[in-house]
Amino acid sequence: MIFLHAQAAVAATPEELVHLVRQDCGSCHGMTLQGGLGLPLTPSALRDKPVDSLVATIIHGRPGTAMPAWKSILSEADAHWIVTHLLEGFPEEKR
Amino acid sequence: MHRLALPLLLGVALLSGCAGNSLREETSAVRLRGTGDLGVIVERARGSVAIVDTTTRSILGRVEGLGDLSHASVVFSRDGRYAYVFGRDGGLSKVDLLTLALEKRILQAGNSIGGAISQDGRMVVAQNYTPGGIRAFDAGTLEPLADVPASYGKDGARSKVVGLVDLSGNRFAYALFEAGEIRITDLSDPAHPRTDAYAAGKQPYDGLVSPDGRFYLAGLFGEDGLALLDTWQPQQGSKKILANYGRGEEKLPVFKMPHLRGWSIAGGRAWLPAIGRHEVLVADSKNWQEVARVAVKGQPVFVMASPDGRHVWVNFAFPDNGWVQVIDTLTTQVVKTLQPGKAVLHMEFTPRGETVWVSARDDNTVSIYDTGSFERLATLNVDAPSGIFFTSRAMRTGF
């Protein structure tokens, strides 16, 4: 489970973030991140998008779309970690 | 795993292979059974389904190799023997609940969200995100019968399809997320599908049909309210119900889309998830006016009336997905708050509603609750369980 920091003080662990992205971002983007109601989050789909704007999308959401603001759950540092790893090809969960 | 069903599948093989022999002679050696108390539980991470018996509360076996089941849904053949599993990756798998075997599997699209089965049981229809549209298949062979793109606008863009349900006359109703429409496609002659479109509103996210098959409701993500279409008089178009339920207040973040099905309608009322509010909305299902709203722990995902309509069970989106709440439908009050496990994804009532099965993905458990006492009766170990589907759905319109 993920532990939710309203402030950026305590960053989530990589393991928690991988779980969050695969399972909960995966509700819309697919567990394999190939997309669903949300867009694909594969490296090729994200390649041309600036890191900062991807981080901002996670933190603030995208008004007018189904993408919510995750700022109540994730710190900027968490979002940056997620974006960096999405661009590299996101890790699988250890099972 | 126990494979209690194994003797009976031998029975099936023997019987079908020895039609000329005495039935009594064959059945004396084998154990026959029905499927009315069977079901499947999706194991989303490993791409398998567990086949379960709701009488013995046990797992009979597992069928693997069903692809990406990170979002999966299931419909049943009208004889209750086969489960059709629609996977995220466009896979459509036909699983035999008696032999615990994968009978056939096709890849019918790039990205799929679910499906339905026709009134006559002869065709299964998939609803797809990529390519956006619906596709019909022969329920026996899974051979393709029809392909109906969800094209809209001047350039013919394809919309994602949500909320597919069966209607009478082998018609199907569904909603288009980007196009903001409800469509009804008549597949009574699958070689010549006929489709009518009705404006619905902004970003329909799912749909349901009332248990009698008459009213189609599309939930809207992009605006407050739901679109209601009377499928007996579709020419009247859809109308908005529960409009402006958010009263212009800022929405809370929705970390998972709610799901709608015909279980929302019970006791003359519709019990519906609000979007961006931690509320269940209650409407009179005669005039569709709001009669109550119930404050709950989080963003509702499934709002499910028990078969007798006595209670409504609610689970929630992340991060409140460890809770389940039970609403008394007489008082519209929450009467029980449960913690079945981490990441509760789905609930399913046994056919007459004496128990409800609840999946907890991150605990790898399915808990079985008594719906009268709310006591946990049993817990099954299932690998990352998501959807739970019992064969009683085979007999219900909209499932």
Overview features:
heterodimer; A: 95 residues; mainly alpha; Cytochrome Bc1 Complex, Chain D, domain 2; 4 helices; B: 399 residues; mainly beta; four-stranded antiparallel sheet; 2 helices; 34 strands; globular; disordered N terminus
Short description:
Chain A has about 100 residues and is an all-alpha fold. Chain A has a single domain, classed as Cytochrome c-like domain (Cytochrome Bc1 Complex, Chain D, domain 2), CATH 1.10.760.
Mean pLDDT of chain B: 93
Which percent range describes the beta-strand content of chain A?
Answer: under 5%
- Spatial separation of the terminal alpha carbons of chain A: 14 Å
Shape of chain B: globular
- Unreliable stretches covering 5 or more consecutive residues of chain A: 5-9
**Oligomeric state of the chains present here:** heterodimer
Question: What is the first-to-last residue Cα distance of chain B?
Answer: 29 Å
| Total individual domains of chain A | 1
Q: Might you state the CATH topology name of chain A?
A: Cytochrome Bc1 Complex, Chain D, domain 2
Number of strands of chain A: 0
Task: Count up the helices of chain A.
Answer: 4
The fraction of residues assigned to DSSP E strands of chain B is over 45%
Q: Summarize the helix and strand pattern of chain A as letters.
A: HHHH
For the largest beta sheet of chain B, what order do the strands appear in spatially? Answer: 3-2-1-34
Low-pLDDT stretches of chain B = 1-7, 10-20
